[in-house]
Amino acid sequence: RFQARYEPYTSWPNSLTPPISCSSSSSSDRPLRIGYISADFFTHSVSYFIELPLKLADRARVFNVCYSNVARPDARTATFQAYADKWVNVYGKEAQAVAEQIRSDRIDILVELTGHTAGNRLDVMALKPAPVQVTWIGYPNTTGLRTIDYRFCDAKVDPEDTEQKFTETLVRLPNTFLCYSPPREAPEPSKRTPAIENGFVTFGSFNNFAKFNDKVLKLWTCILKLVPGSRLLMKCKPFACPHMRTKVLRRFELAGIDKRRIDLFPLLPSTREHLTLYSMVDISIDTFPYAGTTTTCEAMYMGVPVITLRAQGEDNHAHNVGCSLIANIERLRPLIANTPDEYIAAAVRLARDVKRLDQIRKCLRSEMLKSPLCDGETFVQNLEGVYHNLWAKYCKDQLGKSAEDDTAAIENDSSNAETTAAAVAAV
């Protein structure tokens, strides 16, 4: 029904756009014009994964245009603006006007980074202002729009045999579909895992509260019961409300956990304070079936190992994101659980090995920075290669259509000629 409200463009270029010759648009002839449209070019989870493709772009291969739908720009917005080859503010503009702007900019591949989340411009994508359109990063499911051709993922988050339905064609990037750029204001990890001084292990989760559910509660309470004296630290926006804190603590009490073992923190004023709180956490335990993404990267960057659960039965992108991220760091791969029992066992086993926790704390950041998860140069090179492959495919398809049209025209002319000759002969 949403798509039906829009009449997508069906040809590129048009009267507003200088012709783009597919036959002369190989990677050696000109940089591709890549458009990124998003409401998240500010201090937002998505921003930590789009920074490097802009910052490390090879200008001989791509020309990046950012279409910003940001409501409240901040310092990171200014950073992104400096990285972009062209910056266009589209906040508050009508979809048709934005689409015309994109067409006039001669964008070859338009990438939307928001999906069905706040501030999205799927109305623009529905108009198909670019010949090739992609969805990436900001939403863990299909957009459902037939005008979006591809969805970027990887082989771990969306395996070849996935049964999850997408209207887009999946394009699996090498190694990982995300490349993390740590915040500049991040403090150093604490020198020792806190359990050494505390005398008890602290589990933690800084995920959005919407990801907390009864199945998660069940496994977390099992872990707390099997690790005597352990604590759980949760941090999220709703805990600024006393009623919400009381409600959550009551849920743990009903599950048999003393509320005094649970620490609830609201959002903190700055990114640095937020990350510093990881100095109180020994082990991060992931949520499911909607796993953490930015929170998982932040935990590992602060030296905190993360235990995650792979999707059970039917694969699910949102569930498998943790697996995709953690698999990039060899030391942490044993913390990817295949079943709920394995999830519990991994948490308990690690909690009983404080020496191992301390070793992880000391080396996890450096190992993460050397991994594909933070190897921006390789990631961006691969990404730009994918863009050129997609464009080459589009050009090949267009040339094929052109050849078919030419053949059809010739056959039609030939048929007309035969009909005319027959008519002349009859006379």
Describe the structure.
This protein has 427 residues and is an alpha/beta fold. Helix content is 39%, strand content 13%. Helix 6 (214-226) links the parallel strand 8 (202-205) and strand 9 (231-235). Helix 6 (214-226) runs parallel beside helix 11. The protein is elongated, with a radius of gyration of 26 Å.
Defining key terms:
427 residues, alpha/beta, 13 helices, 13 strands, 13% strand, disordered C terminus
Task: Indicate the topology.
Layout: E1 32-38, H1 47-55, E2 62-68, H2 75-83, E3 86-89, H3 95-104, E4 109-112, H4 122-125, E5 132-135, E6 150-153, E7 169-172, H5 195-198, E8 202-205, H6 214-226, E9 231-235, H7 242-254, E10 262-265, H8 271-276, E11 283-285, H9 294-301, E12 306-309, H10 317-326, E13 336-337, H11 340-351, H12 354-370, H13 376-426
Parallel strand pairs: 1-2, 1-4, 2-3, 4-5, 5-6, 6-7, 8-9, 8-11, 9-10, 11-12, 12-13
Helix pairs in contact: 6-11
Q: End-to-end span in angstroms?
A: 57 Å
Number of helices: 13
Radius of gyration using CA atoms only: 26 Å
Principal-axes shape call: elongated
Spatial strand arrangement across the major sheet: 3-2-1-4-5-6-7
Largest sheet, strands/sense/barrel: 7 strands, parallel
What letter string, H or E per element, gives the SSE order? EHEHEHEHEEEHEHEHEHEHEHEHHH
Unreliable sequence segments: 14-28, 414-427
Record field, number of beta strands: 13
Mean residue pLDDT: 90
Beta fraction = 5-15%
